[in-house]
Design brief:
With about 500 residues, this protein is mainly alpha-helical. The chain folds into three domains: about 190 residues, Serine Threonine Protein Phosphatase 5, Tetratricopeptide repeat, CATH 1.25.40; about 130 residues, Serine Threonine Protein Phosphatase 5, Tetratricopeptide repeat (Alpha Horseshoe), CATH 1.25.40; about 80 residues, no CATH class. About 45% of the residues lie in helices and about 5% in strands. Strands 1-5 form a two-stranded antiparallel sheet. It has a two-stranded antiparallel sheet with strand order 2-8. The protein has a two-stranded antiparallel sheet with strand order 3-4. A hairpin with a 6-residue loop joins strand 3 and strand 4. The two termini are about 40 Å apart. The N terminus is likely disordered.
């Protein structure tokens, strides 16, 4: 992350803490600041709150981050056929049963962390939005700040609606815990909120953050195209092909993004906040680990070994079926799968199984030796977590175009992704065949990135692909955390069907 941007986040990280105080502080917080206001700093009036939202992605619940840690891996990744729990068989064995084998548990603490931290982000976004509204802030910078807050609220609800289905719609500032004791909203109501928030982002976020000198002031900060990409993805889940295609075409025609020449660069420091990135969770370590603004996204997925090979916890590893699914010559296989007993790509041999407990590891989080030397850390604590890439925009556009019988464009966009992977171009045969081809490309392109399970569900392919592992229609949505039901009351927050 750009040091200028990060320094502001660190400087004002205390502001959200003040703004989320409740009870007797309400009247004070509703008042316009006196004399020396934030406006004197030549920024939006709620910029401190909004910078806190970027930092919220690194908030912990115990040792875990809901957006870059094992609760996220479990609900977004383990359930697909590209990834599995990993680690040693005995380490967290219950997680493998719950997620790899679809024996869902409503009281498993992983889902409680996921739920709580997503609503924590929502609450912080609501606070920023309400504060701007109560102060009547309509200057250009504040309008952007509100759009940023709405994007983060939409992103949190996008995860929640995919994972749980019907969830409480909290689109207001929470002052006391009882304020959040609400019944579930319908899935269409949640999608409507997501659409409204992302439309505000598209309208009010800047196209870029360049200053007059042409230098990016805030790499990693949201733009209108980030909001477009997330809204396009939200539309694919509802088969709104025309809406998704239009948004993707606007991103493509903007000229702001392109595929990196090497697929693997997306998962190295050199690719962070680059031309292929639309949104990623930031992390940063300086020389000898100072300053430290890292997280455990890479650590929790690193090779589980000893000595020089004690690189992490070993969670979220590739499935054998994923390894076998790549076409011959596909560069994405070597960039995704690290093999035990083989060269790591940097001249070192990974210990063989069973010296390490898995045959395969996630190469996308493998620590670069140059960064190990620079930071003084063996484990990859510096890697950004990329959530939206331009390759996704191209394949979403291809999928939507194919469904709208525009196969020429669909093939063109799909072949851009295939060409980067070193594969020959596709030619058109039938719409159904191209649909299968695009599905295969998505599996290869986004393996281990938390897309596969949700793709299978939205394509109605989950039963045919995952049924042998225990998946049934009941497993489309995870049960609401029992802790959330206990808090709200079982007569207020009703458990999902089947659970």
């Amino acid at each position: 992350m750009n040091k200028y941007f990060k320094s502001w986040i660190i400087l004002i990280i205390a502001v959200p803490l003040l703004a989320t105080m409740s009870g007797g502080c309400k009247k004070f917080l509703d008042r316009k600041p006196l004399q020396a206001s934030l406006e004197d700093l030549n920024q939006g009036g709620v910029e401190g709150l909004v910078f806190g939202l970027y930092g919220a992605f690194l908030d912990r619940n115990g040792s875990y981050h809901a957006f870059s840690s094992i609760p996220w891996f479990a609900l977004n990744s383990f359930r697909g056929d590209d990834a599995m729990k990993g680690s040693s068989a005995a380490d967290g064995a219950d997680w493998g049963v719950v997620y790899d084998e679809f024996q869902y548990q409503k009281s498993h603490w992983s889902s409680s962390i996921y739920w709580d931290q997503h609503y924590n982000l929502i609450n912080k976004a609501n606070t920023a939005i309400q504060t701007a509204d109560s102060l009547g802030l309509n200057d250009p910078a504040s309008v952007i700040n509100v759009a940023e807050a709405k994007f983060f609220r939409a992103l949190a609800y996008f995860d929640l609606v995919r994972v749980f289905g019907e969830v409480p719609k909290i689109d207001f500032r929470v002052y006391t815990p009882n304020d959040s004791k609400k019944p579930k909203a319908t899935v269409p109501q949640i999608w409507a909120l997501i659409d409204a928030d992302l439309t505000a982002g598209i309208t009010n976020l800047p196209a870029n953050w360049n200053n007059p000198l042409g230098n990016s002031r805030f790499p990693g900060r949201l733009t209108k195209y980030t909001a477009m990409a997330l809204q396009a993805k939200a539309m694919l889940y509802r088969k709104n092909w025309g809406g998704a295609l239009s948004l993707c075409q606007q991103i493509i025609s903007s000229g702001n993004y392109q595929l990196l020449s090497s697929y693997s660069t997306n998962f190295k420091v050199a690719g962070e906040n680059g031309k292929e990135s639309l949104f990623e969770i930031q992390a940063d370590l300086g020389a000898n680990g100072v300053p430290y603004n890292g997280h455990e996204f890479g650590v929790e997925q690193g090779v589980r070994g000893s000595g020089d090979w004690d690189l992490g916890w070993g969670w979220n590893v590739p499935e054998i079926g994923q390894e076998a699914s790549y076409e011959t010559g596909d560069a994405r296989r070597a960039a995704t799968i690290l093999y035990s007993g083989q060269d790591d790509g940097y001249g070192k041999t990974v210990p063989a199984f069973p010296t390490v407990p898995r045959y395969f590891w996630n190469k996308k989080v493998y620590p670069e030796p140059s960064m190990q030397t620079f930071t003084g850390k063996k484990k990859n604590e510096w890697l950004n977590h990329v959530l939206i890439r331009y390759a996704d925009v191209l394949l979403m556009a291809a999928e939507a175009a194919n469904e709208l019988s525009n196969q020429a464009s669909a093939i063109t966009w799909t072949n851009l992704v295939r060409s980067r992977a070193g594969l020959p171009n596709l030619t058109f045969s039938t719409q159904a065949q191209l649909r299968d081809d695009i599905k295969k490309e998505r599996r290869s392109e986004f393996a281990m990135e938390g897309e596969r399970f949700f793709d299978l569900v939205r394509w109605d392919d989950a039963i045919s692909v995952l049924g042998g592992r225990g998946y049934t229609p009941c497993h489309k949505y995870y049960p609401l955390p029992q802790s959330a039901i206990d808090f709200a009351g079982s007569s207020v927050l009703i458990q999902n069907p089947c659970w």
